[in-house]
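Chain X:
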Amino acid sequence: MRTLQYIPRATEKAYSAQAQNKYLFFVPLAASKQEIAKRVSEDFQVTVLDVQTTIRKGKKTRFSRGKHAYPGITYRQDHKVAYITLKAGDKIPVFEETTEETKEDKKAKAKNSKTDSKATEETANTKEVKPKKKAAKKETKEEA
């Protein structure tokens, strides 16, 4: 088996496919359906029922050959996408990490981080100001 990455797709289409217990992954172009099923079942401890693959051709892009030359055309890389159907009840946790946080949790974290940052700024400011004033007073005493 190859040691290449199987990257989960985080798109609206991927999230809506979860309702039918399907998950989308970017896979290597040379990977077979059997390899994909084996790798996903080992990595995420799930039962794979079906694997469907598609190869998405790279789009055409133009590039410059200089000011007066005709621009050239090249193609972006092709991608292979695997649609993996899991057994009912199995889930892949990679897709659920972002949906677990609610709005209230995010607000609470934001408030805590703001108060923590303000507290650290205040302590830093008070520590910096006091030594400067004392040093200024000592200088004036020495001059007199």
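Chain Y:
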Amino acid sequence: MIILAVTLAVASVTDLRSRVIPNWLVALAGAAGLGLAVNEHRAVEAVLSGALAAAPFLLASMIRPEGMGMGDVKLVAVIGLYLEESVWLALAVGLGLAGLAGVLMSLGKRLPPSQTTLPLAPFLALGAGMTLVIGGNSLQ
């Protein structure tokens, strides 16, 4: 859980500052998560959760690359690796918060929502953090 928390914190800060989530960060977190999953005999479930969670984000990234970067896709895969089936709650909370923030920013700037952008990692981190706090499953 500490590895995931540190990963989400660093990803959030870098995404807020530069709109980039470093490859080295998600690679290290993914490797550590996979190692933990193998150790707990949950590798298949963890990898499947990560892949399934990342799939819609990958599709969105391919359809509209200017709207979502691959860093977000890889971060979602890592979150799925750690949270397994609880990833869906984390994504629902995170995307809900991102949507609300986007709407409020659009209204505040008087711009259409399609012209409002914001970094996604902090919202994904909030969703994952809230899921862990309420007792979502995670790799220990």
